[in-house]
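For reproducibility, we list the full input for the adenosine-5'-triphosphate complex.
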Amino acid sequence: MTKSVSIEQITKKFDSSVAVNNVSIEIGQGEFFTLLGSSGCGKTTLLRMVAGFLQQSSGHIRFDRKIIDTVPAHERNTGMVFQNYAIFPHLTVAENVAYGLKVRKQAKGDIDREVRKMLELVRLDHLAHRLPRELSGGQQQRVVLARALAIRPDVLLMDEPLSNLDTEMRLHLRSEIRAIQQQFGVTTIYVTHDQEEALLISDRVAVMSMGNVEQIARPGDIYLNPQTLFVASFIGDNNLIPVEIEALAADGTASARLPSGERTEARAATGQQLTQGTKATLSLRPQDIDLAPAGTGGLQGKLTELQFLGGTIKAFFDLGTGKPVTVSLQGRHGTQIPVIGETRSLIPLPGATTLYAGEVKA
Ligand SMILES: Nc1ncnc2c1ncn2[C@@H]1O[C@H](COP(=O)(O)OP(=O)(O)OP(=O)(O)O)[C@@H](O)[C@H]1O
Ligand SMILES: [Mg+2]
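The corresponding predicted structure, in tokenized form, follows.
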């Protein structure tokens, strides 16, 4: 029976450096939960604590409400698909998958049946008697997945399981992992630095930065409603424009002044506290901007560069903000493409501009 996982105020220090900083996450039974963040943000460290390979400095981890802090790794009944958790080279595919079941001293008939089932699931039944060196990278990764699932884990832990594979195999295995996870209904914690992978495969995602969890939400919310400046800059293409908060109205709208002196009205992103007279950052996605003739409202920008990408056209406008503002135009029949050097009005979709306290890092 799969279990829920509670990560409660977990901190991990290596000497004086903090790798994971007071992280709390509640993961429901059967949920596909992903830790997403760039290299060194603490993803593997957190996963290794859940696995029991690493002891936290403080905080608790529970499986189904039961504290497991002192339970050794091999008694936590987790299935592990780690990059460095290789298959056994001297055992066949079937023997690799049977390994965990043999350790658990299950009857031979049961083991054989289970192994067959698992190999069918990952579509390797025809290769059961091969050795790992006779398999492709993607096939080897599927053996690891089958071995992890064969023990009927309470929790499945995966650390960048697809990162060594080519694009085609990665996309294929990605949807396969999700399908198998759904079929098993097994609680899964998945680690990746690939945001597209995280947003496509997960029920919910935790975006991490420097040991901290920045936001926990469903993929759509992470993209449409980023709650910190880090998430707004990390997830998807975005224009982040430095502004100063000139005035704050009672209804929560702020008047923000751009470096050019132009002003725009916008709301604070959820959870952000703005202060009058301080520096802030305006966030506006490239596809949320319409173009209109110069001087017809919005923000005035001069076109400096065009990139034709087929279905979309990226137009770069100089707004005197130091960095060009990207507008993404649909490459549709009849689209009016502006000319380099032209000035246009950039008109944000209603509600699409949001404000974050503080300045963007260059
Ligand atoms: N055994 C260790 N001793 C000292 N520092 C460590 C140790 N393991 C990890 N760290 C440090 O902790 C931080 C987090 O490392 P971690 O491996 O969790 O990052 P990650 O998010 O998995 O990164 P990547 O995407 O590169 O795998 C890093 O700064 C790393 O150098
Ligand atoms: Mg890692």
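The mean pLDDT is 93. The chain has two domains: 5-226, 237-357. Both points were considered when choosing residues for closer inspection.
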